[in-house]
Amino acid sequence: MDVTIEPLACGTLTAGRSMFEAGGDDTPIEIPVPAWLIRHGDELALFDCGMHRDLTEAGPAREIVELFFGLGVGPDDLIGAQLEQAGVDPADVGTVILSHLHFDHVGGLAQLPDARVLVQRDEWRAGFDDDLAAANSFNPDDYDLGHDIVHVDGEHDVFGDGRVACIPTPGHTPGHQSLRVRLHDREVVLCADCAYFSTTIDGGPLPPIGHDHAQQAVSIERLRALRQAGALLVPGHDPTAFARLPERLV
Ligand SMILES: [Zn+2]
What would the pLDDT profile of 192-215 be if each residue is shown by its tens digit? Predict the structure, then answer.
């Protein structure tokens, strides 16, 4: 059984370093917005799915995001176009695993209406709690779309054979999760926003925005333990690390 990971480039966000690292200056940083195509034999899954197509055009959705970020997203950066570029019909993606409900991870769901969605129960619950949704800048227009939802509690073996597993890494948001993937002869962990940058994994500053920084620090320790055990950790928004990835991790 071959299991592979293809990084998909779903646009960029730009803001001062202080948006991404507490205590940082205002030097603008452009960060990638990745999604991850997982091929598990003939089955296709995504880990996160990029931004909503409404953000490619002027309008209220774009205006809200542009209060905080410079937006680099066009039609070619949307999940549908990225999948087609990878030779995949979006309708063939059976499963979307969500790291969390922020707009740059979940907005592509609108283009994947028939996929089942795996999300931590705590995250999904927060998405429908008015106070937690507001505190975490969740926008239900991104995810309250009637998908078939699989609520995950803690670790979860996605395909039942130990090759792809959700691992809870809360803190950035209430129910954030990362994804552990066993490739041919190595293990890769897609950290998502538990660690924006390689430096975050190594104890660098956390972003000022976050649900629970102490909890996030514990989650990062958990990631470091996986690295200690031999896994390659892939941070969520690191421009250098993302640029260095091959077209396909095997
Ligand atoms: Zn986030």
Answer: 999 999 999 999 999 999 999 999
How remote is the CA of residue 62 from the centroid of ligand 1, in Å? 17
Domains located in the chain, CATH noted: 3-244 (3.60.15.10)
Q: 129: which 2 tokens?
A: 């709690």
CA distances to 18, 80, 176 from 215, in Å: 21, 34, 11
CA angle 91, 97, 99 (to 5 degrees): 140
Q: What is the pLDDT of residues 170-184, one digit of tens each?
A: 999 999 999 999 999
Ligand 1 centre from 104 Cα, in Å?
7
The answer to whether the pTM exceeds 0.70 is yes
Q: How far is the CA of 123 from the centre of ligand 1 (A)?
A: 12
Q: What are the C-alpha distances in Å from 28 to residues 16, 31, 210, 224?
A: 4, 10, 20, 28
End-to-end, the C-alpha distance of the chain in Å comes to 12
Beta bridge partners of 233: 189
- How confident is residue 17, by pLDDT bands cut at 50, 70 and 90? very high
1 alpha carbon to ligand 1 midpoint, in Å? 32
Cα 10 to averaged position of ligand 1 atoms, centre (Å): 15
**CA dihedral sign of residues 182, 187, 193, 197:** negative
By the CB criterion, residues less than 5 angstroms from ion ligand 1 are 102, 193
